[in-house]
Amino acid sequence: MKAATQKTRLVDLAHARSGDKADWVDFGLFAWNAAGYAVLAREVTAQAVAAHFAPWLPGEVECWYLPNILAIKLVLHDALQGGGARNLRLDNLGKSMAAALLRMEVDVSDDELAACATAPRVGWWGDKT
Q1: Over 60: is that where the pLDDT of 124 sits?
Q2: What does the pLDDT read at residue 11?
Q3: Is 74 left (phi over 0), alpha (psi -120 to 50) or beta?
Q4: Alpha-carbon distance 62 to 21, whole Å?
Q5: What 3 state SS string does 10-25 have?
Q6: What are phi and psi of 5, to 5 degrees?
Q7: Which domains does the chain have, with CATH numbers?
Q8: Is residue 112 classed exposed, middle or buried when 0-12, 13-18 and 19+ CB atoms within 10 A define those classes?
Q9: Number of other CB atoms surrounding residue 54 within 10 Å
């Protein structure tokens, strides 16, 4: 019997930062815990992120998995219309792109989502369950 699945946004599993590197947007996507990282590692692929940003992104996406820190590094090439100084977009430095990434939906089983919600969050601040 297959486990029931649902869609959930990345914001329920992780937090993120983004910024520009010339005409690239550079992301750090950080799972709140190991249960969340297992979902991220399976669902957040270069292809899935490229599809999510397709209306804005003519370039390719690169993805590096960093399991020791429960993170994924993503680079979106050609994402800033030539770079910060040339870009006419409101967010010419790509800072708000992390929020857009966190709106991406992924498939997760009911059991996985429960594990993500109940496992303690890990980070520099120590255990604050």
Answers
A1: yes
A2: 96
A3: beta
A4: 14
A5: HHHCEEEEEEEECCEE
A6: -125, 160
A7: 5-118 (3.30.1360)
A8: buried
A9: 9
Q: Which two structure tokens, joined as six digits, stand for 54?
A: 């397709």
Question: In sequence order, which residues have a C-beta less than 8 Å from that of residue 54 and are 6 or more positions away?
Answer: none
Residue with tokens 């989502």: 113
- pTM, rounded to two decimals: 0.84
Report the distance separating Cα 51 and Cα 1, nearest Å.
30
As a whole number of angstroms, the distance between CA 59 and CA 77 comes to 5
pLDDT digits (tens, 9 = 90+) for 19-76: 766 676 888 999 999 999 999 999 999 999 999 988 877 889 999 999 999 999 999 8
8 A C-beta contact, residue 37 and residue 115: no
What is the spatial distance between Cα 86 and Cα 105, in angstroms, rounded to a whole number? 31
Q: What's the CA gap between 113 and 10, in Å, rounded?
A: 11
Phi, psi for residue 79 in degrees, rounded to 5: -95, -10
Contact 41, 72 (CB under 8 A): yes
